[in-house]
């Protein structure tokens, strides 16, 4: 390793040029992947076609792009039944790829709401079909959630819902290290159905776990409503529009279990049982903010951890700022870090009020940089024990009702968290974290930190629907001009 | 039918029944009301005492009041009527005399005599029918050659007015058995006022003339901007002869013309010295004060002050105390040149008395006058004498001073400092209540700030600070108890505004208020107090755990983008105020911090450059509740929203609760983060330019604004819905609301309220169904923490306008 230590603001390795190269590669990989998949044909794709590939990397030529001395590799992880964990993080899961620090990985992610309109979001897409496959006998991915495999509503109990691609094992990562994840690119996943060529789709479910549920004006008071949105897959239009909505009706899954509410992920919605309202949200353009709702490393506290409540290792942070150009720093809790990503969103508002965003499959390109524990003292990353986000202009700190709910709430944490959260607690945590950040990374004393927080830090409500509620604190990097350069 | 009436609102009656209902109310105080064909429009609170006296508080549209035709039968020779005009204006006719009356006047009438009161504006008054008051009646009759008006500016008259105002404020909470002692006190005070007048009259035969001169000066002051003003106009307005008026000035050793010119020059001089008006040209300023020709003005100015206007403006005055004090006219210097000597002849004494009036008036007059109409001024330059377009809004300037602020509370009973029309533009100076954290930088040499903050062992210019009791009987902190802390400039009465309407406040511009201290001339400063009410206070890492820390920032508006930098901080130490009360914490606003008791630590936040977001923390209309309301918790009427988006270019919509809306603004901030975590922002005095636009209820029918019952904010790019823990904490928490709100608030409740308001907005303004609104909220609306330190916690929701590309952006229209 050379003397350079990566720090917030440091964007080494990514220049406008190599970013373009990476995108080019990504598109090439995607094309070849689709071509291979076509050859194999619709239904059951082979592992060969859906396996991890190592793309020839433009990075390999430029040694300086990598913090270490070795060449940089670029991997491609398509989404398939073999490359995802559905609804949980696990330190003992088998990694889909092992990489070196500095490597790039392009990762496909699928939204777990794809089956709200399988016609648009699953059909003809081998990756999605592989994951969502479900007939009377077999599910492409049986376990959905960290719950018991024999749960009545389905294996895993739906205790955790997000389809997470990974885990990615980072060689040399150990507890106490920091994993930096740079989001180099994010692109929507085009519909594979020829009828919807050039379009991507996303689903927004106003669900039973939403903030609005139980506080509705019109009848029926306890309804769930799914709104389908269309996104331009070519990237020319930067906004989404609603296509239709429908009220959730009891759905019987292929195993014969009836789901009166949205209580289990990936239930294929039978469109003959629902009534679609066209022309909803007419003339309304929702500006897109493609991002990953769930992104993180595996926690150490338990082997199977539900994907819903975010925690110190990240997870379901649901902050729309985690998009292209953003960098995340996670405290590594287990060997290899075990990074995974999912819950892709085309757009979300701060609070994610009704329970979901525009849940829309995305593909991201990430670069991973490992910061070893021994190198941290004296750097801004020392003592980092929560997911820290850096965007082009801001640092964003994530406060949760419980900073580490698994540790704080003990054995029943994964259940009890849902009844213990509050915005007040999350704000308290965000305050603690921002104070710590300013005192350590900017070397302010406590009084300076508190004054600055009141006059220049914006606190926003990240989400009020993920069990462990979130409040984030945003501070502009320009406040400390001396640090730049 | 109305015997048990305590509250009456004409809007509760069908239109055809209003007049008779209104008549019935006024008969209770032996008055007849006639309304020039218009249906009565007003609100009355009424209470009769055990002694049969009647107190009636009224706020209503223009009308004429006269003795009830049946008074000869109804009154037994022991009834006196008292009219205290709390706001509004009009004229009084009695015994062939006609005089103007205005806000703060108290007039007594014999109900059996003939007289009439013409109220020509919306007004608010307390009318009292005092029974068993034959001794007052005697005094009233004695002075039958003169109007029975009581001077209320100071002395007993002022006390009397305060009492009446307090009775009006509390009327809703007074019952028939509590009124007699108040009645007795009022009677005694009125007797004292009248007998004082009687005593002074024979001793000094010129007192009537002096009173006339005072009135004339006031009249002139209000019309300085009228370039056509002639002595005849003033004489006519005041019901005096031209010759008599000229004699008044002659006795004061001046002439009408000279006085008028001097007053205009003085106003121009003050404007030229005011950095807040730096964006106006010299021509515009001289047109503002009635000079029709810039060259003439320049000559007159140079002759008077020995310096051209341009030179005067360019060269910072060396001693601001001498040259920049607001409202100190040249006449006073003249007075100083001729100190009174014993043995002066009576003529000299009389002249001094008259000059005293001229001087006195100028000293107290406010600069509440028309600022230049920009377009008109330009047009006049191009074509001299060209008429100014009628449609052009007026531009007013409200300087901040003890006379134009209310400190720490809102109330519907505060007399307006100004009445404007919808569409008028106002430049309003505001002061931060934290200026006394560093008096040298933020107060000294600044006449407006000095006027508001003045506090010596003998005198505190603004006594009431907060909605608490004036005798500080609860916690002993000081008058008003600091239950509410913000210095609010206003209120401004918007002509024609009524409950049910919506007032739109457009923030056109915001400028920092420069220091007037010679060492800090031209620089601006703000204070950030990490105070005991902050979110952090019980959650500190380092010792001492219960500390308060004040950080003083300097604001540099010249850089791009403008920014603030910390200058120093200090730990709050117990401060003893000039009245001797010790403030161990920041528990009362405006306590001057003694630099000798604190330790300033320089070099703090040395690396941090804070981008500024100038805005007003407090933007309010008067609440509908009676009595003073704490300025800290925001509510349905706006108030201390502390949302930094209320900056330049923003529009704030507030539901009108009282006649005239009564708009006030204060709590200026140079910058604040969402949450205002430590209790305050960078509290920094600012001057704002506002346009007030009234949306009448009828015009908005069917639109979102017609249903607006909470503050709504619009910026260039966004709509912002302000959720509060309690949308209307007064209504929701009952009689102890002002205490309870500090205990009962939560972020969840604020988030819930923000969600409901956003849903309401999307459904009403954009015609969405509930399901559409909820989906859109989740995918495109951002919820942020506005503040966690103002009792009633705030969460706001931001809707980007780009979401609705086809929407024309007018919230007063019906949805598509």
Automatic annotation (TrEMBL), chain A:
UniProt cross-references to SUPFAM superfamilies, sorted A to Z? Acetamidase/Formamidase-like
Q: Which InterPro entries does the annotation name? A: FmdA_AmdA (IPR004304), TAT_signal (IPR006311)
Q: Name one GO molecular function term.
A: hydrolase activity, acting on carbon-nitrogen (but not peptide) bonds, in linear amides
Please give one Pfam family short name: FmdA_AmdA
Coiled coil (residue ranges): none
Superkingdom of the organism of origin: Bacteria
| Name the UniProt record assigns to this protein | Acetamidase/formamidase
TrEMBL record, chain B:
Disordered: annotated span = 311-350
Which Gene Ontology MF annotations are present?
DNA-binding transcription factor activity; hydrolase activity, acting on carbon-nitrogen (but not peptide) bonds, in linear amides; sequence-specific DNA binding
Q: What SMART domains does UniProt report for this protein, alphabetically?
A: HTH_ARAC (SM00342)
Domain of life of the organism encoding this protein = Bacteria
Q: Which UniProt keywords apply?
A: Transcription, Transcription regulation
Composition bias, Basic and acidic residues: 312-325
Q: Kindly give the Pfam families that the UniProt entry links to this protein.
A: AraC_binding_2 (PF14525), FmdA_AmdA (PF03069), HTH_18 (PF12833)
- What residue intervals traverse the membrane? none
Q: Does the keyword Transcription regulation apply?
A: yes
Q: Does the keyword Magnesium apply?
A: no
Residue span(s) of domain HTH araC/xylS-type: 214-315
- This protein is called Acetamidase/formamidase
Q: Give the source species.
A: Pseudomonas kuykendallii
